[in-house]
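Forwarding the complex inputs:
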Amino acid sequence: MAKEKANPVPKKKINKSYIKRYWQLYALLLLPLIYLAVFKYLPMRYIVLAFKEYKLNTPLGDMPWANVKGQTDIWKYFKTAFGNADFRRALWNTVKLNLLDLICGFPAPIIFALILNEIRLKRFKKVVQTIAYMPHFLSWVIIASLCTQLFAQTDGMVNSLITKMGGENIPFLSDPAHWVATYVGAGVWQSFGWGSIIYLAAIAGINMELYEAAAVDGAGRFKKMWHITLPGIKPTIVVLLIMNLGYIMGGGFERPYAMRNNLVMEVAEVISTFVYKVGIQQLKISLTTAVGLFQSVVGLFFLLTANTISRKLGERGIW
Amino acid sequence: MKKKLLSVVLAASMMLSLAACGDKPADTQSQSTDTQSTTTTTTTTTDSTPAATETTGPDARGMQDGKFVETRHITVELYDRNVDGGTEAGNNAWTQWIQQQMLERYNVEVEFVTVSRWQESDDINNLLASQTAPDICYTYNYGAIQTYANMGGVIDLAPLLEENKDLVPSMFDWLGDELVYQDLDPSAGTLWAIEGKRNEICRINTFVRKDWLDTLGLKEPTNKAEFEEMLVAFRDNADTLLGADASKMVPLSISYDVGWRAATLIESFMDPNITDKEYYVNGYDDRKFTENGTKEAIRLLNKWYNDGLIWKDFAEHSGGDDTTEDDMIKAGFVGAFIHNYDYPFRNGKDSINATLAAQYGDNAKFVAINCFEDKNGGYTKYSYSNSGDRKVFFPATNDEPIASLCYLEFMSQPETVEFLQIGEEGVIHTVDAATGAIVIQAPDDAHHDWYQNSGKNIDMTINCNGLRLSDPDLTTLSLAFSYSDVDPEDVKNAIKAASLDAKVPGSPSVGDIAAETEGTDLAGKRDQTYDKAVVASVADFDAVWDQGMKEYLEAGGQAIMDERQAAWEATYSGDMLP
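Prediction (whole assembly, two chains):
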């Protein structure tokens, strides 16, 4: 053991011997890289389906280009999508719900991290942290049934309490506007604790001397928070904001699918559920590939724009 | 040393996973002709003319004396209902029996591919897209098969049947030419699927709590007004009926699937003299959404909902959550509901009636009644048609179509179906001493492997739905005894109620309707409209209904009706089936 450790590293050939010395770490990196290649890059060749007529049991190359009565029109499925009232509604809902998520969900972990940071009682802080992380590990199916149990119009626990105290039923799940609030609220509840981890880490990296110096200058808690902590985690906030903007057209499938019901479909149908319903359930693969491609392109556009703006403003981008 | 060892192990595992991943693409490419076979690897697929040199050898199909000379391997779809207390769907005494019989009779190995009963079409779509669909598939949805066929995913059965008709005599006996060729396209001559047959055609019933009626001194309602009075009485006497649980009272329970869970009510509002043509034109939607009269039926439901007679939260428990409502019914909080004609009797000890009896005594039970009068004073409702149940099709990846036909033949034989439905005496049935009827019972622990995961093994008897014993008279006699742990008299009464004034829909054969594969999410739009219309305020009802109907028709509903009308007019001269 000792011999190996003593192995000296010549400084000039740093690259080669660096890899040689830490090859185990690089080997560990292989697995995620393979994952990306197999599950993210290889499937990309099927993007071409958006411009083709999907056929079963036919190699990708042999599928004909999208056509209307024999007339090749590779944009056929994009036109079909935008001509479909359901898709337009899903598109609008996706943007709306994601924006609301961003407005309500993005600041929540930051505020939570700031508050946690001010708590001096270590054990209490740990307990609060753990409890706040927990919802992150629940699947949306479970959260959705929790919501039904809690918020159903008459049987739900919350409404039972409200009526027992003489109040009026609140249609948390059956009225579209209320449902959106419930949806966004559940999202914030599920993710704010977990999301705060990265900010807490950033806060931990701030130089303590700054606080001491500020204290000497007579800064109170809020002044310190405003002038030291927040600027200290600003780069982290910006990077996460950029990444979140990339998801503005995306978003998961599980959450809207598990939480919606027939009464609120007009606000709950989003692109991912539309793709599932039309693509998987009705096997309209070309149409939904077109939708997916459109979604990705718009997402990429948002991401690049946000990144450029952030760099122009003098912040670090995500690359 | 430890560190070194660890790194070697890690590196080795990396290499292994790399190798495994590298294999995959090549593997899937070569899979195009290979059907999914995870359990058996020894069987090799052979050409259809093996050992052709022998003089008295096998025929061109590779068969000798009705049996394949070389063992063939087929895969068969099987629903997995994930039954509580059941057995493994694809591996139990029943599946093993089928496998053994097929091997003995035809020298064909059968492998079952299980798909979730509740997501069957999603699963089959995925299997088809990945070219791993079972050789024999079935589904209730003909539109789906048509979609697959349009994409080149299904074998045309017309020529196959023509060449091999001698192999499937029992199937033709059981289904008849009419049913076998019901889906034959008159112009193209293609046959993508073979329809199954229903042997029990009862469909829906309205059920009420008998003991509640008795407690309140009410008679069974015989018309809508009396039914409404009964619901009001349930609501107003919740304290008497439920005591401490009075707040949980639900006079009438429905689910998000209103079209089904109000079917007797909806059908009573339809014109009893509707023509076959009108019925067919509106027939794409099996929830009667576009029929004349449906709107008025839902208007009545809407009134009841606003009067507090219907479960308030029904629409919030959507898709896939049947348990909340079932539990409510079993707990005894519900006064009435509309459902499958035998719904309270299903599932033996877990059935609704058996659960109620266990808690509140034998008088606590649901009985079937007729209480929704049509405009002529009868109780018009629709039963199932004998023809058309599940549709069997062979995906294009099926390279054993003849062996697959043999399987259909085996499944059509009366003895096969009888055994699958009632098994051996003493195991899952006894013979009633007084009447000689077959009485189905749950198997004891020693024979648990013979548990039927689906009632009468309906998921295995792929072209037969309903009790089918070799002796038709015994079949009729035994129907009421085919549910364990419930009173046969209640079942008899339910069959009688479901049959009263029940019409059997005709089965026109007009070829494929292309528009049926085009619409986007019509069933979803229908359910949303039904649900929203029921919970709307009375003043908003018309607006909600009309808007929902408009969206449904625009999304493809109208196109289907137009094409159906044209197809009918091209095939038949009058408004009624000949």
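The longest strand of chain A covers residues 67-68.
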